[in-house]
Amino acid sequence: MKSDVSKSTPSKAWQAFQKSMETPRLEKAEMFESARCGELAPFLESNSSEAYISLTNEKGYSLLMLAAYHGHESLVELLLKQGADPNSVDAAGNSILMGVAFKGHLAVAKHLIAYRANVDYRNPKGQSANDFAVMFGRKDMVRFLKKFSNSKSNSNDRIILWLRFLFSQLKSVKSQFLASKGGLK
Question: What's the whole-model pTM score?
Answer without folding.
Answer: 0.66
